Each structure stands twice: as structure tokens, then as C-alpha cells.
Amino acid sequence: MQMYDVLPDLSGFKQLPGSNQSLLLAGGKPTIVVFWSVSCSSCSYFLQKLTAIPEIKSKNVVPIFIHTYLDKEQISLSAIKNKLDLLYCDAVYLDDMDDQLADLFQFRYVPALYLFDKQERLRFKQIGKSSTSLIEQRLKRLLNAKQ
Predict the structure, then answer these.
(1) 128: phi > 0 → left, psi -120 to 50 → alpha, else beta; which?
(2) Residue ranges per domain, the chain?
(3) How does 2-14 read in b/e, with b if 16+ C-beta sit within 10 Å?
(4) Rounded to whole angstroms, what are the CA distances from 132 to 53, 95, 124?
(5) Model confidence over 3-20: pLDDT tens digits?
(6) How far is CA 82 from CA 53, 86, 90, 94, in A?
(7) 9: CB partners within 8 A, 6+ apart
(8) Using one digit for the tens of pLDDT, what is the confidence trace for 37-83?
(9) 21-144 has which fold?
(10) pLDDT at residue 122 in the model
(11) pTM assigned to the model
């Protein structure tokens, strides 16, 4: 996925328990898509820091968290749900068991983050570990942009 590519339609993919699918219909807001895995320790920490960002907590941004599987590992649905329950975040939760979304977004490592503007165009992407302060700055810039 390259800069200014349009956010693909995610409505047909498998939802995880607790997913708020109605957020996919909430147009006019920036969207943050995060690929993560239960078996990735840095992913859990990253997701906790990410959900604490004020713009995400205040629901000014649509968060989409997509669980992906590393090396065809076997993970129970309850293990994924337990991790998501710890986030306390109103978000869309999807499961990418067959790697369709991973192929669509073209990444190799988790966590992988994609930030889309209000018109659903890709404006920022980040693969691997990082600080959430840069993401927070990008979100503020997108929310304040006149588009």
C-alpha cells in the first residue's frame, strides 16, 4: 500500500467478538488501521499506548485493529479476545486468519500501522516498533487539516 491509496472496504472480513462494525460507516473521520498479533509482545504494549492517545479515546478517529497470525501459529479466539478486552477501546476488531488483509496492505512485520485521512487516503504508515508520539502528532495534523 502506497501513500494516497484509498482505504479498502473492510466490511466483508471476519469480525472478532466486541467489534463495533458500525464504526466502518462513520465517514468523515481519520482512520487508523493496526495489524498486530497476540504472540507479539511489543504489539500489546503498542496497542495499550495507542488506545491512550486522546484523539482515539475521544472517538475523533476510527480505530481498526486487525489480528494477524505469525508463522501460521494456532491461537485461540479466547486469547485474542482477552487481549482486546484489556484495551477498553471502542473499535473495529478483525481477524486475518487467511492473510487476505496482510496481502492487501503489503506488510511483513507487526505491529503495522496505517493512518488514513478523512477522505480515506493513506497519509502515514509505520511498520515495526515505534513511539506513539509521532502518531499522535500525525493524528492532530489530520484532524486540524482543512480538507
Answers:
(1) left
(2) 21-144
(3) eeeeebeebeebe
(4) 8, 23, 13
(5) 999 999 998 899 998 898
(6) 21, 7, 15, 14
(7) none
(8) 998 889 989 999 999 999 898 888 999 999 999 877 778 889 999 99
(9) Glutaredoxin (3.40.30)
(10) 96
(11) 0.92
Q: d(Cα 24, Cα 13) in Å, to the nearest integer? A: 12
Whole-number Cα distances in Å, 98 to 58, 72, 92, 93, 139? 32, 9, 18, 15, 30
Q: Give the DSSP letter of residue 97.
A: T
pLDDT digit string, tens, across residues 60-70:
899 999 999 98
Check: CB of residue 58 under 8 Å from CB of residue 95: no
48 and 34 in contact (C-beta within 8 Å)? no
124 SS3 class: strand
Q: Quick check: 63 and 51 in contact, CB under 8 A?
A: yes
